[in-house]
């Protein structure tokens, strides 16, 4: 169950990051509220995952899911630029996440 909590916590990290961008520095109320709710939910699920998962594994995977998810949202939703260097960097993050998962019993 901890892994499920962790995946959803990471996905909610993507949600709050996206809506933080949409909040325009917390000047728009609805995106600001969504940011706050998703942030609290993300941290709550991360906390539940950390009950049984090692700190290093849980935190690394949480931030990695958030980083790669935000990268993809930036490209596909916000129209941010994509180039070989950015793709290689994201691929290295994913490779690190896979290795972290495989190294955890």
Automatic annotation (TrEMBL):
InterPro entries, alphabetized: EmrE-like, Small_drug/metabolite_transptr, Small_multidrug_res
Coarse class of the protein's main subcellular location: membrane
TM spans (from-to): 33-50, 57-78, 84-102
Record-level GO BP terms: xenobiotic detoxification by transmembrane export across the plasma membrane
GO MF annotation terms: transmembrane transporter activity
Cellular localization per UniProt: Cell membrane
Domain of life: Bacteria
Membrane topology: Multi-pass membrane protein
GO cellular component, one term: plasma membrane
Keywords noted in UniProt: Cell membrane, Membrane, Transmembrane, Transmembrane helix, Transport
PANTHER family (alphabetical): GUANIDINIUM EXPORTER, SMR FAMILY PROTON-DEPENDENT DRUG EFFLUX TRANSPORTER SUGE
Family the UniProt entry places it in: Belongs to the drug/metabolite transporter (DMT) superfamily. Small multidrug resistance (SMR) (TC 2.A.7.1) family. Gdx/SugE subfamily.
The protein, known as: Guanidinium exporter
Gene name in the database record: sugE
């Amino acid at each position: 169950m901890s892994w499920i909590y962790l995946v959803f916590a990471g996905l909610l990290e993507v949600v709050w990051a996206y809506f933080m961008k949409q909040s325009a520095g917390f000047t728009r109320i609805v995106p600001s509220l969504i940011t706050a709710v998703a942030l609290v939910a993300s941290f709550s699920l991360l906390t539940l995952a950390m009950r049984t998962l090692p700190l290093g594994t849980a935190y690394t995977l949480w931030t990695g899911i958030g980083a790669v998810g935000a990268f993809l949202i930036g490209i596909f939703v916000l129209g941010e630029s994509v180039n070989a260097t950015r793709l290689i960097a994201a691929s290295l993050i994913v490779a690190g996440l896979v290795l972290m998962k495989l190294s955890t019993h």
